[in-house]
Amino acid sequence: MKAAARAAVAAGLTAFILWKSHPRDVLAALANADWRPIAVAVILVLADRALMAYRWVMLLCIIDPAERPPLAEVMRIFFVSTFVGTFLPASVGGDAVRAYSMTRLNVRGRDAVASVFLDRMLGVASILLMAALGLILARDLAGNRAIVVSLGVGALLCAVTLLMVFSDGAARIASAVITRLPARLRDFGDGLIASIGRYSDHHLRLVNVLLGSLAVQVLRIVQAYFLGVGLGIALSPAAYFAFVPLILLVMLLPVTFNGIGTSQAAFVWFFGRVGVGAPAAFALSVLFVALGVVGNLPGGLLYALGRADRRRARAASP
Fold first, then answer.
1. With 60 as the cut, is the pLDDT of residue 251 above it?
2. pLDDT bracket for residue 245 (50, 70, 90)
3. Is there a domain that residue 318 lies in?
């Protein structure tokens, strides 16, 4: 889907959900919010970004230490990619920026892509685990076919990735499939599978990353809870543990920018099932997306400073 089409889908879906939620009531919910618990959510988003950065650093273990960029450069790439990803489809765009930026620092492309790919898959796996907990807490959702199918597809992708890490047979099957691709893609695909397979020597790191990913999801759920408290939504934390992981899966769909539109629809639909009015649920979705943007702002600062440094370097060159 082209950028213009994604923007149109995001704008149209958001406008429709806002209209159904009554704009005046949504504005009233935001205007009457208690900003103290919302400030707590802002602090927590800084913690989850730090955990996400740590998680990716752990996955750079397959890169030869002599070729590994300095930690400061790795951190700059991570935070800048999160900022740039704000304006790209779901998290896919930010991942591509991260992998490409690593190759510009002389990291082999297959190793850079493998680290980002596994980071994403373990992140999705952590959301799926939390979503499974959510279905236990909200059993009526287990009968919804769309939810069950989405969880099944996500679980299948994660299972295939882990099989390529731990099973030589699965890696050989993947290589056989790749032989049908054009030569250039085939060579890169074989190299990518080899890079992913090297994680089989780093079991403890993978467990560490998965635990870090679960911690990130818990932090996001708690953030949503404090945002809800700020809006006066009277729900127990269990409701947020039931719904937020499923909403995060919806937001991962690469159909709009930064989950705009899809997040509004998901928050209104899920929280409406437990009696939360559409205006409050829509306001919660807006704050949740805005919170993610706040977490990406450090990357924006680093991006701006980098551009300024490049301009100065060009001006100083003869």
1. yes
2. confident
3. no
Amino acid at 217: Q
Assigned domain for 177 exists:
yes
Q: What is the pTM of this model?
A: 0.84
In terms of residue numbers, what domain contains 34?
3-313
How buried is 134 (Cβ within 10 angstroms: 0-12 exposed, 13-18 middle, 19+ buried)? buried
Beta-carbon contacts of 61 under 8 Å, excluding residues fewer than 6 positions away, are 199, 202, 205
Dig out the tokens for 55 from the structure.
């998680």
Give the closest residue to 245 by CA, choosing from 299, 295, 288, 287: 288
Residue 179 lies in a domain: yes
Q: What is the DSSP string of 203-255?
A: HHHHHHHHHHHHHHHHHHHHHHHHHHHHTT----HHHHHHHHHHHHHHHTSTT
Report the C-alpha gap between 28 and 223 in whole angstroms.
21
Sign of CA dihedral 297, 298, 301, 306: negative
Total number of domains constituting the chain: 1
Q: What is the DSSP string of 261-285?
A: THHHHHHHHHHHTTT--HHHHHHHH
Q: What is the pLDDT of residues 275-306, one digit of tens each?
A: 899 999 999 999 999 998 888 888 888 878 77
CA distance linking residue 85 with residue 98, whole number of Å: 9
Whether the CB-CB separation of 29 and 275 falls below 8 Å is answered with no
Whether 141 is in a domain gets the answer yes
Alpha helices in the chain (DSSP H): 3-21, 23-31, 35-58, 71-85, 92-103, 109-137, 145-166, 168-178, 183-197, 203-230, 237-251, 262-272, 278-316
**Cα gap 184→178, rounded to integer Å:** 11
